[in-house]
Design a protein that fits this description.
With 106 residues, the protein is α+β, with helices and mostly antiparallel strands. The protein has one domain. It has two helices and five strands, in the order αβββββα. The chain has helices spanning 5-26, 77-102, and strands at 29-33, 36-39, 49-54, 57-62, 68-73. It has a five-stranded antiparallel beta sheet, with helices on one face. The longest helix has 26 residues, at 77-102. The radius of gyration is 17 Å and the shape is globular. The relative contact order is 0.14.
């Protein structure tokens, strides 16, 4: 018996939902402010950092020993200054999320 279109759609939605849940565990969002999303990514180095993404680009900032730009794709100097202020404002939250997210990794 062939699956009905509705059952295929339900399986596709379930698979997409599982993928999103897995992706969120790999890169949990720490904050959203305006067009910016701040998140950590599980499959990278252990030095504490945050990724910032928006339609204009993506950047990575180290948090230790201090807040410092690591990579930038697409953001202007002005936007980078604004992002730095966002990171400063959310630094406690970023550190808490980082520590919680990576606490079980050996």
């Amino acid at each position: 018996m062939l699956p009905t279109p509705n059952s295929r759609l339900q399986r596709t939605r379930a698979a997409a939902s599982a993928f999103v849940r897995g992706a969120c565990r790999m890169s949990p969002t720490v904050f959203r402010e305006g067009a910016f999303r701040g998140f950590v990514f599980s499959r990278e180095e252990r030095q504490m950092h945050i990724h910032i993404q928006s339609p204009q680009g993506e950047a990575k900032f180290w948090l230790e020993p201090g807040i410092e730009l690591a990579e930038n794709i697409g953001f202007s100097e002005r936007e980078l200054g604004r992002i730095r202020k966002l990171i400063e404002r959310h630094e406690h939250e970023i550190r808490e999320t980082w520590n919680r997210h990576f606490s079980g990794r050996g």
